[in-house]
Amino acid sequence: MNFAVKVGSTKERTIRISSAQTTSFLWEGENVLSTPSMISEMEETCRLLLKEQFIPLRDWDSVGTLVNIRHLAATPVGASVVFKAKVASADLRRVLFDVEASDNLERIGEGKHERFIINVTSFRDKFSSKQKQLARI
User: Fold this and answer.
1) Is the pLDDT of residue 1 over 90?
2) pLDDT tens-digit series, residues 50-106
3) Structural domain boundaries, residue 118
4) Which residues, including other chains, have CB under 8 Å from residue 78's CB and lie 6 or more apart?
5) How confident is the model at residue 6 (pLDDT cuts 50, 70, 90)?
6) Residue 48 lies in a domain
7) What's 32's domain CATH number?
8) Is 4 within the bounds of a domain?
9) The three-state (H, E, C) secondary structure of 27-70, written as one string
């Protein structure tokens, strides 16, 4: 299936940082937004851009295939963070995004993220087959 993903398309979303998204090793109590949580929110912003603008079919979605992200600054629990995604290139079902995250004071993260558009049923079938094979090892 061909999805006409347009280079330059954008998505922006704002979230409030919760304690479930923080590190737990720096000091006792609520800490700072963790890098994996920031990347997860960047990925979800890209996924939503694709689903809302280019993948209307329920049985199609996308999965992350590459992240190249820099975490630039710490952000505390309770802060609002704006996540932005922009389609940098699209090659059939492979889509590369420029991503960034900013709190109210500064840019806290930036980089590239790639997603691949998948048929969920086919993906699940391949995954189930792999699970069975691994269970036999």
Assistant:
1) no
2) 999 999 999 999 999 999 999 999 999 999 999 999 999 999 999 999 999 999 999
3) 10-135
4) 16, 17
5) very high
6) yes
7) 3.10.129.10
8) no
9) CCCCCEECHHHHHHHHHHHHHHHHHHHCCCCCCEEEEEEEEEEE
